[in-house]
Request: fold
Amino acid sequence: MLDLSRIDFMRRGAFGRMLKTERRMRQRTTTGARVVCVASGKGGTGKSILASNLASRRAERGERVLLVDFDAGLANAHLLLGLSPTYDLGHVAAGTVRLDEALVEGPHGLFLLSGGVGRPALADPGRRDLDRLFRALRPAEDDFDLIVVDHGAGMGFGTVAHLAATSTLILVTSHEVTGLSDAYALYKRAITVNPTIRVGMVVNRAPDEPTATAAWTRFREACQRFLRTQPEWIGFVPADPAVARSVEYRVPVTTSAPDSAAARAFERVSSWPPLDLARTSSAFYERALRALR
Ligand SMILES: Nc1ncnc2c1ncn2[C@@H]1O[C@H](COP(=O)(O)OP(=O)(O)OP(=O)(O)O)[C@@H](O)[C@H]1O
Ligand SMILES: [Mg+2]
Reply:
């Protein structure tokens, strides 16, 4: 016969905890911000241009978007969006200001957390700095639909912690062998620290489609040969003078020149279907905190 007192005990004990965890996980698939990281390894490939256009377009479509400029100390997302933030993630990590005080509102209602310029505070963050920063950023997951993290060049500790925690990464590269080689190194690192990560690749600033496609083919073949896996192809963004003009105007190209070839390509990147699924089973910043240990 069924022992009801035992079920009651189980509900209160480990079984109950399991049910709660399962319920929380089910909630996480429908609530909490989706997080997408934008990285490349190599500098100057167009990460910040892509991240700012992505954030702007998703905000224009009605999502609550937070752009985190993680290029601490060398930030420039605020310039691309025409913003002048007083505070940055260094202040947030130090506890000088609250997260909501550091955020500035940009085009289409997106919010930016700047990386700060010329302040050494978080230029080369260590475990303790990142721990404080991730704890401070954790509440943002309840207030936004999408968090876009714009990484600086290289594979610093902070970037690797993000790669270990994120469900989704956009890898931005040039068509040149130098860009592809750094993108390969970053991709390899990402799948090593996070085997379930979903990675999409964009070849930016391509002179033409055949050049972009050839670069993608070379990259994909190298990945298959040495890693037995490959990223997904999102597409390419052409080299377009409208981008340089948008930098000068400090308005994303998807807003300043929506009919330009680059804007149309960024629009396609913003519609990459995995962006709608970029949720982890537990809170992103909790996973990032665990990755620091
Ligand atoms: N599709 C494009 N067409 C023309 N110019 C482009 C394009 N994408 C980027 N650029 C130019 O390249 C410059 C560098 O881009 P961006 O700042 O986004 O690179 P990044 O990868 O973020 O660099 P960093 O590694 O320093 O953070 C931009 O200022 C812009 O003028
Ligand atoms: Mg950048």
